[in-house]
Amino acid sequence: MRVHIATDHAGLELAQYLIENLTAAGYDMIDHGPQQYDALDDYPSFCINAAKAVAAERSAGKDSLGIVLGGSGNGEQMAANKVAGIRAALAWNISTAQLAREHNNAQVVAVGGRQHEPAEALEIIKTFLTAQWSGEDRHARRIGQIGEFETSGAIAGFDLGTEGIAKP
User: Fold this and answer.
1) Which superfamily, per CATH, for 2-133?
2) Residue 94: which H helix or E strand, with range?
């Protein structure tokens, strides 16, 4: 399986650790940067490039997933989620990593490099990479609704107005 990885300065050491360990485990690792530490770097381009590569390869029928890293993983997840068709999930433990694949068919996992020891982050990511999409109807329906909104700004059969229900 090909795995695209991107980070910022806060996840650079973790990215290097993951690339080494996942390569040893047989994954084809593609590093989207950065290549050196710069405390002022900007993660969006790195993470978007990794997510775009995952989207392109999956569209071509290839087995490809992605990893985006930062201090918390939040911004990196947000950046990856801006790529059409990509579902990036912030995973903070084994369970959230597994459910991201099984229930949400996420193609990119985000992890906070300052939130986990390297060995723990590796286990979270290995769980994500090995978990399989369940294909259950309820999950497929929900993912379909997300995709529908992404492309049309609507979800058939649902009112997506901005008005809430007023409380007395």
Assistant:
1) Sugar-phosphate isomerase, RpiB/LacA/LacB (3.40.1400.10)
2) helix 94-102
Quick check: is 103 catalytic? yes
Hey, where are the domains in the chain? 2-133
User: Of residues 9, 32, 57, 76, which has the active-site annotation?
Assistant: 76
pTM score, whole prediction: 0.92
155-158 — which CB contacts under 8 Å span 24+ positions?
none
Task: Please tell me which residue in 103, 120, 139, 148 is annotated as part of the active site.
Answer: 103
Q: What is the pLDDT of residues 24-75, one digit of tens each?
A: 999 999 999 888 887 878 899 999 999 999 999 999 999 999 999 999 999 9
Q: Active-site residue 13, yes or no?
A: no
Q: Please, is 50 exposed, middle or buried when counting C-beta atoms within 10 Å of its C-beta (0-12, 13-18, 19+)?
A: buried
